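I would like you to sit down with the pair of lines that follows and say whether tokens and residues agree.
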Amino acid sequence: MHGSFHSKIVDPGVFEKGDTFSFRSQPYLRELFETVRDRALPLTIVVGAGVSMNSSLPSWRALIDKMTATIADPEVRNLASRDGADLMRKAEIILQLIKDENRNIQDHEIIRDALYQRDLQVIPGELAKSIARLAYATRVDTRLLTTNFDIILEESLLAYFAEKDVKSFSMRPGGSAAWTEWNADPDHVGVLHLHGLVRQARNPEEPIILTESQFLKYGAQVREIISASLENACTLFIGLSMSDPNLVGPLYESAPATSPRFSLVVPPAVDDVSPTQAARYAISSARYLEKMLGLKPIFLKSHSQLNQAISDLALAVVEPDRYRPGVESADSLVYSRRLTKALDTCYTAIGCEPHAEIPAGDAAEDLTTRLHDALEIPGGPLDVLRELAQDYDEHVLGSNTGENFGLFLWLRTRGQENGRRRYTINLVGTSVYTHREEWSLRHHVTVDRGSDFAAAQAVFTGAPQAANLTPSPIAQIWRGILAAPILMSGTGSDHVIGGDPADVLTVGAITLNSTFVVNPNGDEVAPRDLSLISKLDSERTNQLLVSLQLAAEYAINLG
């Protein structure tokens, strides 16, 4: 690890200005794809809170903040919220304070109430689905471990494996041995929960590991199973900060690495620091992990790109001859080629001339008409909302006094700047008006976590985003917005994995704008001003999101 060590982490300048899903800019990304595609080693996937966050569950820090908020005594709650102790120590303190107020409550009940919104079903996000798809594609020799308390992974796996073949395991006595034995059957897939399980409506699986004392008590056992899972395998860490000593310890003890281990990372946000500087700091800091632990960090610009990398790994497994990093060919399936082809197809389908960024003339009017019609098609947003509104007698849709909606279509920018693809989106059309001049539409809205545009946030997170809008001179009627990524499948390959397309791309976002408030954000909002969207439970919201994808496909007119 020492001596002539040379870092292969992406250069911060390239990360800032160029493509990050690039085999040229990121040698470790290329190595990851070649290793997984060749299938010479078993695959160990270690999943952290980032995957649960993509399914609308809280991060580790947010979980502890939610626990803190349940302390009844306001002065104690205020002191606890301001405590700057590290998270394991703070979790220890918070749990004790809550139990001092209620001696009958148990740790797992406190965690459960903070982890899940009451009576809401948790639906796996796209990242969890992509991990499940990869696990199915490599199922003969794949091991799944997680530091998460939830069963998001298991729920995702059920889309590909029979229910009887999916099983959860914990670190209770004999748990890791049972997990190893279960995985020996190629039809089985087991998920080992390193920190225990806390389910919504079922008993927990202990030991629960959240606090400092729990980490000290069970750490050796966790490190032992991590070490065994690293051995003679390609290991992939997803959605982890790599600060957990139970993960870092085995990496350090086994360095220099005899088998490859990669981490896929989206630089975290830092208060009062620009995203550029936060990314530079994260990349520089990762050189310690690279040099001392033998870890190969791969930095991506967004959680959507992180999901894309996992999704493409599964495609590379089932299409190894066509997905060859660095090999140029007419039928190559590498990401950059597929994305270019998909965007050209989308822009052509909405009537754009070559290299144009929005349709003009009759093509623009046609797109407006298609977006307007997309609201009303069977299974479209209004069709679904009218059916759901029957459960809310007081809610009026349409007319001058009821809630009205509009669709806005955004596509990833297809042009390049200085030979690099922009990570931006363009508003190409709406259902409520036609833009006759190119300058009048939003161009090159940057995709980043700090964007004011819900569409950009949806592309960044790879997940739906609900937000309120402040009426402006050019958009006086809109008060709320629901944005969702647009997924496009089968652009280069017709292979399926467990019945789902292996070739999936995020090509943009579609937004459903409302004349009512979509996200109360804890504010006092008159019931008559609340959108129907804000009243839906998770299952009904998912129905609406499916209708938005259908509307996008109809509007883009891909046939």
The chain has a mean pLDDT of 89.
